[in-house]
Amino acid sequence: MAINTRNENGIPNLVVTGFKDHGKDTACYMLYQRFGIPFITSSAHACETFLFEQMVREGYHYRNAAECFADRDNHRDYWYEAIRAYNGDDPARMGREIFGRVPVYCGLRHMDELQALKAAGLVDAVVWIDASSRKPPESASSMSIPMSEADYVIDNNGTKMELESAINQFVRATLPVLCEPPFVEER
Questions:
Q1: How many structural domains does the chain have?
Q2: N or C: which end of the chain has fewer CB within 10 A?
Q3: CATH of the domain at 88
Q4: Domain annotation covers residue 43
Q5: In a domain, 134, yes or no
Q6: Residue span of the structural domain in which 145 resides
Q7: Is 62 exposed, middle or buried (0-12, 13-18, 19+ CB in 10 A)?
Q8: Among residues of the chain, what percentage have pLDDT more than 70?
Q9: Of 23, 17, 41, which Cα lies nearest the Cα of 166?
Q10: Contacts (Cβ under 8 Å, ≥6 apart) of 154
């Protein structure tokens, strides 16, 4: 069933979520490569917007934002709490910033933020990337969204080719506007 959207270009605002290392970024990159759907990860946005400078002020010895970003898995709980603090009294803050730039927010990890984005009418669908047959779940200290919140679950328990096939099936079933040839006016 197609996902309804308020966006003029027909591409819905998607939240792509799931546990650490389950393939969220890979799935989003496939959406971008195959269908041209741009995305921003929560970690990239946080690092670019505030987190790199904050961590340097707090004594982390990163030479640049890329180095900070590359080290994020070693401080996953810190990043989770820093994003919550950045959002402050407005849990939708970072999501609103991301959706102001692109239609796919990759890596949202806090239930309050998801609920606030839904309440603000900014989320058309939640997609969960699942690799639970080959990867462990993530601690609640850095991920509070349960899989049951997802509108769609994409299986990533097989090969990269199987994930690509699952992404293609998801798009064909839910985003048919992206599978139609461009309309050409006859003269």
A1: 1
A2: C
A3: 3.40.50.300
A4: yes
A5: yes
A6: 14-175
A7: middle
A8: 91
A9: 23
A10: 27, 127, 128, 129, 130, 163, 166, 167, 170
Predicted confidence at residue 178, as pLDDT, reads 66
Which residues in the chain come in under a pLDDT of 50?
183-187
What pLDDT score does 1 carry? 65
Dihedral (Cα; 30, 31, 34, 40), 10-degree rounding: -90
Instruction: Please give the Cα distance from 156 to 128 (Å, whole number).
Output: 10
**pLDDT for res 187:** 44
Q: Write the burial class of residue 89 (CB in 10 Å: 0-12 exposed, 13-18 middle, 19+ buried).
A: exposed
Is residue 184 included in any domain, yes or no? no
- Strand partners of residue 16: 106, 127
> What tokens does 131 get?
């690799």
pTM: 0.89
